[in-house]
Amino acid sequence: MDHEQKLQIQRSTCGWPGADPLMVAYHDGEWGVPVHDDRKLFEFLILDAAQAGLNWSLILKKRENFRQALDGFDASRMARYGDEKLAELLQNPGIIRNRLKVQSFVKNARGFLQVQKEFGTFDRYIWQFVGGRPIVNQWQELRQIPVSTRESDAMSADLKTRGFSFVGTTICYAFMQAAGLVNDHLVTCFRYEEICRME
User: Fold this and answer.
1) Is pTM, for the whole model, over 0.90?
2) Is residue 126 assigned to a domain?
3) Residues linked to residue 136 through DSSP beta bridges, in sequence order
4) What would the DSSP string read from start to end of 46-80?
5) What is the pLDDT of residue 99?
6) CA angle at residue 52 from 50 to 53, to 5 degrees?
7) Contacts of 181 (CB under 8 A, 6+ apart)
8) I need a surface site. Which of 14, 84, 89, 194 has the fewest CB within 10 A?
9) How far apart are CA 129 and CA 68, in angstroms?
10) For residue range 45-76, what is the model confidence (pLDDT) as tens digits?
11) Type and span of the H or E element at 149
């Protein structure tokens, strides 16, 4: 056993990734890291909408397929998708082929561009819901982590008024966790302090 393997064993994590390599890599490298890049924020918005009613590990397995199918999550291209492209997406086994979700990709791309136009960046808009800084929680156990908060309620309500879909409060909270608007790593997790230092 080499040093890196010993280090992995000694590290305390949140537990939810289990042994799935994709979930472990996502937890260790992305989850909770504050994101301020508009393209990346849009990617998480699309992937979290696709996740509705499904598990995140399935979305991670299909992530590269989504990236290829949706022009690298280019909102300006996605906003122009017509019936032919939507029909193509609905035939693509590499993504989630739910008609309402596929239609939401286009609606949300258009809403995203409108927000950028109004606020300058989507980053400026979305981070206002947490006052511009990550909310740092101090959870001891996974069961303490909420599925929604007043911040995700407000985000959901505002996104809906702007024409976004698949942006319920639970989806918005998952987005907040993914994009680092909230640090929900357990305090015992090795990533908790690392992410606190990224603020």
Assistant:
1) yes
2) yes
3) 183
4) HHHHHHTTS-HHHHHHHHHHHHHHTGGG-HHHHTT
5) 95
6) 130
7) 34, 126, 127, 129, 130, 134, 135, 151, 175
8) 84
9) 31
10) 999 999 988 999 999 999 999 999 999 999 99
11) none
Angle between helices 169-178 and 150-161 (to 10 degrees): 110
Number of domains in the chain: 1
Residue 35 belongs to domain with CATH number:
1.10.340.30
Domain span at residue 39 reads: 20-196
Please list, residue by residue across 9-27, b when 16 or more beta carbons sit within 10 angstroms of its beta carbon and e when fewer do.
Answer: eeeebbeebeeeeebeebb
Dihedral of alpha carbons 23, 185, 194, 171, sign: positive
Q: Looking at residue 4, what is its pLDDT?
A: 52
Within a domain: residue 11?
no
Residue 6: is its pLDDT beyond 50?
Answer: no
In a domain? residue 166? yes
